[in-house]
Amino acid sequence: MKKLLSVVLAAMMAVSVFAVSMMPAFAADVMSPTASTAESKKPTLEVNGVPTETDINYSPDKDNTSTITFTYTGEGTLKGWEENLADLGLSEGTDYTAVMNADGTFTITFISAQANEVWRSGDVVVNAIVDFGSETTKATTKKNSSSKAPATGISSSIVAGSVAVAFAGAAVLAATKKKDAE
After folding, report:
1. How far is the C-alpha of 181 from the C-alpha of 179, rounded, in Å?
2. Most buried pick, 3, 17, 35, 128, via CB within 10 A?
3. Whole-number Å distance between alpha carbons of 4 and 20
4. Selection from 20, 129, 151, 22 nearest residue 82 by Cα
5. DSSP character for 182?
6. CA 153, 156, 159, 164 torsion: positive or negative?
């Protein structure tokens, strides 16, 4: 009986350790945001064809969220704007309108459902054409210089696994002591 009990408890410990060690892998798939979330993905913003995260701001109109206004905030002289909506199969006037305003901002209004879906999918590219004088392009891409890895939840699964193993070990010890006492 003692051998059977120790084999059963050992099997339970092995299964629990395996399950706990797999938790981070399953959590990454289940807990991570996916394309089905309600939030829109960010458009690609460029200055002279070079991606930027700092030189262009955009915001939806407070009365019509299908109208997005882009503002160039970087250095140099803004000459104009480009977008890739025609390349994505949309027709100006039918699916969207694009207007460079007198103050230099650029407004796109998404009219059709297809155009709104393209905006939400993150496929839109808006490019500011800027004259930097003697420079031909300006690279403003921010790089992550942090040496810290993103949190993945592995520490909590290690703690949970350690606790599970400790309790299983205590159960085995208690069971063997009880059998020895009989």
Report:
1. 5
2. 128
3. 24
4. 129
5. -
6. negative
